[in-house]
Amino acid sequence: MTTFRNAAAAFAFLLSLLFSGLAAAQSDPAALFDQLGKANFAETEKIIAELGKTGDVKLVPAFEAFSAGDLYLRKEDGKVFVARGTGATLQLFNPATGEATGEAAKGALTKLKVNNTVRRAINNALGGLTLLSPDKAVRFAAAQAVLKSPSADNLALLEAALEKETDSGVRTIMEEAKAVSLLSSDRPVDQKKLAIETIKKIGGRDAIGILRSAEASVDASLKPDIDKAIAGIEDTLKLWDAAQNVWYGLSLGSVLLLAAIGLAITFGVMGVINMAHGEMVMIGAYSTFIVQEFIRQNAPELFDWSLAIALPVAFVVTGAVGLVLERSVIRFLYGRPLETLLATWGVSLVLQQAVRSLFGPTNREVGNPSWMSGSFQLGGLAITWNRLWIILFSIVVFLALLALLKRSAFGLQMRAVTQNRRMASSMGIKTPWVDAFTFALGSGIAGLAGVALSQIDNVSPNLGQSYIIDSFMVVVFGGVGNLWGTLVGALSLGIVNKFLEPYVGAVLGKILVLVLIILFIQKRPRGLFALKGRAVE
Amino acid sequence: MTETRPRSLLYLDNVCVSFDGFKALNSLSLVIEPGELRAIIGPNGAGKTTMMDIITGKTRPDSGEVFFEDSVDLTKKDEADIARLGIGRKFQKPTVFESHTVWDNLELALNRKRGVFSTLFYTLTEEDKARIEEILATVRLGHRSHELAGSLSHGQKQWLEIGMLLAQEPKLLLVDEPVAGMTDAETVETAILLKEIAKTRSVVVVEHDMGFIRDLGVKVTCLAEGSVLAEGSIDYVSNDPKVIENYLGR
Amino acid sequence: MITQFLLRGFDRKIVAVLFVLLAIGVLVPASNLLLSPENPLHVPTYAMSLFGKYLCYALLALALDLVWGYCGILSLGHGAFFALGGYAMGMYLMRQIGSRGVYGDPVLPDFMVFLNWKELPWFWHGFDMFWFAMLMVVVVPGLLAFVFGWFAFRSRVNGVYLSIITQAMTYALLLAFFRNDMGFGGNNGLTDFKDILGFSIQADGTRAALFAATALFLALCLAIASGIVSSKFGKVLVGVRDAESRVRFLGYRVEHIKLFTFVVSAMMAGIAGALFVPQVGIINPGEFGPGNSIEVVIWTAVGGRGTLIGPIIGAVLVNFGKSVFTGAFPEIWLFALGGLFIAVTLFLPRGIVGTIQHRFKARQAMKAARDAESGIDSDTKIQPAE
Asked: Which residues cross the membrane (chain A) (predicted)?
């Protein structure tokens, strides 16, 4: 019994040896690898493609080794191995199976040369091979790799993989990869037509590139389809570009809104031109810096909370500076707007120099908490987290302020003072204190803006200077005394700016916006949302 | 249209204007004859000042016609044009050039060429000098002619402003509350002065002071809510039940 | 007519200041050129150039005072007119370099060769001629002021709104001149000048002549400004400042009055800029900075706006202070300047000259009132109500 079984096993082994020997000429991986030893680059490419077609996942490490330059030819017998290690002796492994097969002196081996074409071929083959990997993530990555560098060689493999594939996400990518690969293959025209449709659905600049390069090689009858697909993709792209510009515009607009909204309050309610408003923003940003430094030194685990802590700190610090400023300078200048402008400009110089003396003239490092960094993709939009948070933050600040003005007792007093100062004061409203706290509120909001801006701009003593003119433009454009005007003003200026930028460049775009505002003010001297009638005079 | 209209100095027909939904003037019609002195009364917000704004080109009406001397459409002109046509205006709050002397105030108001270069190279002629001195005498400010207008009393500023209007040689004078803040003696003087002025030109006076209006003894128009409520002699108007209800009675 | 116009402006104070200016214009260069360096009265060249710079600033402040002090238009963009005048002069000086530049191109300035430009942009033509460049020194700022003012004054933009948009104007120009494609040397501006009208710009004689020219032009502009201010037009101007609507209802075209003054003022600022550039040897976009324009306002405010002599004194004093401070304690200068802004607006709103004049006038008025009281004014029937 045992003998017979042994004999049968031996026979089967012999048979298999025989068959494998016959097949080796064509597709035995080990033999193919050995052929690499003598092949030139063109032949190497072919061999790699052959190896790829086996669909054998075990070959992956060998390919990776080849790409990394770890594939060697043993001079004595012309066999090819993967060799690893450092020093004079290297460990040898069978490329087809990955088994260790002893070691050899470095001198007895010759490295197989790799150039870029070979490397590309390897990557293609790898892409095909890993398509069959049992690991879903690996398959997904492989399908994407094929999609990035399509090749007709992978087509059969892709189709095989698609038959087995169960995961819908991976399937989609594979379908797309198949379509892309199909275009450069010799498949029939109707299949290619379908492929073009699939590619159109992928969209994006890469798809256009693929279609363009395919256009040269495919059948002439397909050209209209390709052109149509390209046009379709371009239309979609334009839409996404516009959406992206709107997004950038909203982002800039939210920054402008933050910077301008405090100004809208002091200007709108009190008629005070606060040229030091930008410096309040700057102080807010420095408050963030100080809070972060403190956290770094004392409680690094709280770093992700640093902005949440900085917000009230900045609000209180700048609010207090504003209160002092109002009590010590501005209150003596009511009814003299031009003098107020000059005095606050003086204050801005003093504050700038004070910060420069305290913190030095260079930029200070303010870090992004983890939830503020990075970005994500939404359709064709690239959205960075910090911009998204700043937009949300500016909306929250705006709504909170609106609620404060409309719903609180302080807001009511503030509005009363705006509309009729004398009447308000004779009704028992302490107008000087309303003024002082209104100014403190405007300054405090500037401080909040500073916290937000510290995340996207350089924190330096000049931070405020770069925003002051823009914020004034927003307030003047939107109309004084109306928060909605400020909102609309900020967003529309932001969006117009970002739409002009691609056509004329950032600087010229900004100049154009300034010129447009100057012209606009001629038309509506009191801004977009102006009060009308006798009350204005 | 032009044929059927009575010969008038100032003609307002169906003038409407609104600010943010509030109707300041609601189809107001008014005719001032040449040489007429007219008093206009009415509660706050009746549209008196807005009417003056419309006539002097400060505000544009939403609809309606405003004609000067039957032919000039005032809605198409701006303040300076209208002033040059011969319509002078005194504001509710006396508005004079406080950092100029009384003399300079009148010199600026003189009806001479007002272009940039004519004023740059202007020199005071004997004729102009005489005219200024005459006006100074009329408004009783001769002794203070070289003092700054800012140092005048409230009543004197009112008078200086009237003097400036005279220097403008207007055909029509619009006077907004000329006796506000004046003493009784000053009020009486002002009434005499205005009547004197009205001998040579038309005057429209807006006033709250009924005693003053009575002193003037002229046709009265009562405005309320942007349109004419009653028109006639002071006795007629002050006995009108609508006027009593809307204005006098309260 | 013109002489009469000017003569009217020559009141005693103005004549005295004109005389002082002309004397400075003669004596300083003379001392620099004729006296030996050992002589205690010798003015060294650097000091003369520095003082010449102050006089340019004084002219700029005078120009600003004409619109702000007399007409009530607070322009925060006068630095732009100054810089445009400076650029016009700078372009002339660039063209004078000829083939002596680093790249040796006979026509193109160095920065154009560096940017690979093949030919001169159209707006650089003509600037090789002195008369044309000098014309542009007043025409370009005047034209900008005209266009800007025409729009702004016609639609009655005033007060802080006007201030803010003048600031936006100079800011827009700042951004524009920073661009290399504008053709004005971008960031670096125009510099490395060699000579002016054939005289080396570094020579003591040229510097002395430039100083004299600055003093002369300052005197000339002061005379013109004084003529304007003391004419009937000047009275209208003050009227516009104090009670704009009254002026309008008297039948004056306020927009024309403002426009004329704004344009004249811009031209003076342009001249100041043109005199400034050869003395400091460079013009760059930084001159358009909004901060510069506001600084001019403070010179004017310190000296006394609404007086013609005030801005001249203010500009010289503040800039002298700046030279001293930035040399000795650079850290403190911005504190001092900022403090000056606050202090002047709070405690000295009339400025130095204005305060002195006011005291003087108040004393006179008191004297006049005493005189009046001793006499009997029989024609007053109206007693003051207050």
From this structure: 246-273, 305-325, 337-355, 388-405, 432-452, 472-496, 503-521
